[in-house]
Amino acid sequence: MKGLTGKRVLITGGAGGIGSATAKRFLEEGARVFVFDRDEAACRRLKKDLPNLTGYILAEVADPDSIARAFDELDKLAGGPDILINNAGISLRHSFMDITPQEWQSVIDINLNGVFYVAQQSAKRMLAQGGGVIVNMGSSNGLMGYHYYADYNASKAGVIELSRSMALELAPTIRVNAVCPGFIMTPMQEAEYTPEMRRAFENKLPLNKLGKPEDVAALFAFLSSDDAGFITGQYFVIDGGELAGGLASQA
């Protein structure tokens, strides 16, 4: 990819499945990679697996004070990011009638509010330095109705519209896009779906396979690169063809 060498890349939720694959991909592209994550043990494992990782900072994306402190630390280490991969998120599989107010708030706080807090801090620095790229983590769940994920679906729909609005207001200095994965095989998905459920979903997909974290990492890299220099305000679905035939509506 053009233009990624030496860039300062910040990845939230960077110690998780898609986050760690994205960190690896940007390191392969010659970037300097920093991770925000709340799981210290996972961060230590990531640093061991990726010794070229520039650094990690413990942060809770749902807490604006925590994010402000993390950016203060990042400023001291490297200055503001050139690229933000706003990846941190959670999901809980439960029926609409079973969602508690606490669960609803937790999903919205991390998936939507957290994206806003990190993006605003990043954009402040990118505007000051004269350029940058922000890619927010949406989901195909934010584009179609899905059973058992009402809170998650609502949060991701919000991320998509937040991204489009940011792109309008931050142009031409900052490009902003959203990535909307379908079923990507991550530890979070493994915890929520039995092997039988995963096989059933896989069989519905036109490509007859589930996505890998590396697939999403490649899209993040492209959208962050100079090769995507005329792309902003868009969302990109990466789902193995799931939405092409309305498969998302199947229970």
General shape: globular
Q: Give helix and strand order, one letter per element, not per position.
A: EHEHEHEHEHEHHHE
The N- to C-terminal Cα distance equals 39 Å
What CATH architecture do you see?
Answer: 3-Layer(aba) Sandwich
List the helices and strands and how they pair.
Layout: E1 8-12, H1 17-28, E2 32-37, H2 40-49, E3 55-58, H3 64-77, E4 83-86, H4 101-129, E5 132-137, H5 150-170, E6 174-181, H6 187-192, H7 195-204, H8 213-224, E7 235-238
Parallel strand pairs: 1-2, 1-4, 2-3, 4-5, 5-6, 6-7
Helix pairs in contact: 1-8, 3-4, 4-5
Quick overview of this protein structure:
This protein is α/β, with parallel strands linked by helices. The chain is 45% helix and 15% strand.
What keywords describe this structure?
Rossmann fold; alpha/beta; 251 residues
Q: Care to describe what's here?
A:
45% of the residues lie in helices and 15% in strands. Helix 1 crosses helix 8 (213-224), helix 3 (64-77) runs parallel beside helix 4 and helix 4 (101-129) packs parallel to helix 5 (150-170). It has a single domain (8-238), classed as Rossmann fold (3-Layer(aba) Sandwich), CATH 3.40.50. With 251 residues, the chain is an alpha/beta fold. The chain is built from 8 helices and 7 strands; from the N terminus they run βαβαβαβαβαβαααβ.
